[in-house]
């Protein structure tokens, strides 16, 4: 095909700026439009010329947007309960570890000073206390269950013994056991 000036007049009047030859489709013409960018016209034997706009001009269809919203809702519906379960388990575990550390501090103080040290649990408030330290508090979603209200540690390493039960709102439980003879503290999940 020769230069642009050799094109048939009707195509120039339509605003076409170039044409190219395609083996399977015949001639393909592109028209430049200020508002739409390039649009293409394809010559076919049965339909004449067909014009197609760029799909980017139209954005997303309503169905595409609804599919995205539905998939997002499905992922959120599956993911959020798992995250909440993980957070609940983490809160219960961190509370149990904090109480266990406070018990070990009370035992260490009794061994260091040779005097008895008392660890106390206040079930109604979720507080726990050991001598020489500020009171600790469980996470609001975690509470003390049935068990010992107080445990004494003695200077020889022994203790009054007992169990402290910690429960989370999700039904999870942890038990902290204190041995009578040795005063050793163990966390049972």
From TrEMBL:
Q: Which SUPFAM superfamilies match?
A: Pili subunits
The alphabetical list of record keywords is:
Membrane, Transmembrane, Transmembrane helix
Residue stretches spanning the membrane: 60-83
- Family matches, as InterPro entries: N_methyl_site (IPR012902), Pilin-like (IPR045584)
- KW Transmembrane (keyword) present: yes
Q: What Pfam families does the record point to?
A: N_methyl
Q: Does the keyword Transmembrane apply?
A: yes
Family annotation (NCBIfam families): IV_pilin_GFxxxE
Q: What is this protein called?
A: Prepilin-type N-terminal cleavage/methylation domain-containing protein
